[in-house]
Amino acid sequence: MKPVKIPEKTVTRLSIYLRCLEELEADGVTSISSRQLAERFGLNSAQVRKDLAYFGQFGVRGLGYHIAELKHNLERILGLKQDWEVVLVGVGNLGSALIAYKGFGARGFKIGLAFDSSPAKVGQVIQDVEIEGMDRLAPTIRRRRVKIAVMAVPAAAAQSVAELLVEAGVTAILNFAPAQLTVPAGVKVQNVDLSVLLKTLSYHTVRANRPVRTDPHSAE
Amino acid sequence: MKPVKIPEKTVTRLSIYLRCLEELEADGVTSISSRQLAERFGLNSAQVRKDLAYFGQFGVRGLGYHIAELKHNLERILGLKQDWEVVLVGVGNLGSALIAYKGFGARGFKIGLAFDSSPAKVGQVIQDVEIEGMDRLAPTIRRRRVKIAVMAVPAAAAQSVAELLVEAGVTAILNFAPAQLTVPAGVKVQNVDLSVLLKTLSYHTVRANRPVRTDPHSAE
DNA sequence: TAGATTGTTAATCGATTAACAATC
DNA sequence: TAGATTGTTAATCGATTAACAATC
Lengths: 220, 220
Fold this sequence. Notes:
2 copies of one chain form a homodimer. By secondary structure, chain A is an alpha/beta fold. Chain A has 2 domains: 8-77, Winged helix-like DNA-binding domain superfamily/Winged helix DNA-binding domain (Arc Repressor Mutant, subunit A); 84-198, NAD(P)-binding Rossmann-like Domain (Rossmann fold), CATH 3.40.50. Chain A is built from 9 helices and 10 strands. The first copy, chain A, has helices at residues 8-26, 34-39, 45-53, 67-77, 93-100, 102-105, 137-144, 155-167, 194-208, and strands spanning 31-32, 59-60, 64-66, 84-89, 109-115, 125-126, 129-132, 148-151, 172-175, 188-191. Chain A binds a DNA duplex through residues 5, 7, 9-10, 33-35, 43-47, 49-50, 52-53, 57, 59-65.
């Protein structure tokens, strides 16, 4: 009936709970309460329970959550029961590192295709992945039914690359280009703008090294 | 009097407004209204005005904002009127790419110091930056008064590296390690967890390719 | 002056947290 | 049963948006 909309932040927290459960399981712990889980992140226990409640009832009253079972459920909800082939577009410094970066894989994600517009790069092989030209992008993605893309292209190229990807069937994009992408409804974009992140750090650094200004308007 | 707290999201949006102003200025535009600015990002014009109002009055009623002036003010607020020396810890695949990544610099940020615990890497030079051993970290950071750090270390090392950095005077950390850092109040941490980002994309991909489930509890 | 747009207050919306009945 | 902890509703908090007087 009512179209329950699940907050983006809830989904992000599910990933974080999952990582915690993996660590606990490795330590031999078999169950945990929402309070114990929340304390690990400085969160409220009600938030943990509410996040989980969006997807079902996974706990046992009086006892808490069975770790193996909750882990299984979170993996199922997050779509981690299958492997995902990921396409990389833009094989510059950052792109090459992402191919090679082990932590990136995180079990289940594999950059299996890479594209670049530079003829000099086409044909090169990085970590078993051969770089293809942009003309091959649409047909290859369509054939391999790739759904997840990583974009590490210049800002000026970002929008047109995104359009190519979506047209070829991609429904989720991790975008490192400092550009606002416009995509159809149903396509999910996650922006990772290092420049913006650095600027917020710069903002905080200035303030951390200044006397606290409580009211910016009081100094008239 | 009242301690006006500025939302993190407001600071992030300031960076985005600034990027837009730079583009507009390059196009020769000299002024813009909050509505025009908001439309570029699909935001509400009141939000633009409110974000700016946290820091002062930068507009002219009836006319909008003078671009050069607003740009100057945003740069001042974000602490971009000075250059920042940035320290990198962890020179693996990702770390090396960040040193070399041009987009990273974003005018004003320069990775001038790099540290790694691997003896094999110490002494190597990447893009004019010589990699130093971890024993040099605290004294060098202290001497150069570095305030901003980028961490690209394994999760297991993250907390202890963060502590070293903070102890040496760092007040802002861009953290690529998939770990929850505990730092003293006053130190700002920005997490960039690629694995978590990929998992949210996986979540959306599963849903994008399934019939919409409006109520997860109705299927009893 | 008339038209436009700001700065700001009030209304709305959504997310977090508290509280507690259900129940293991 | 008594104690503990869930699942869920209600209260609170904070952020977004609407509305409008101030004013260029």
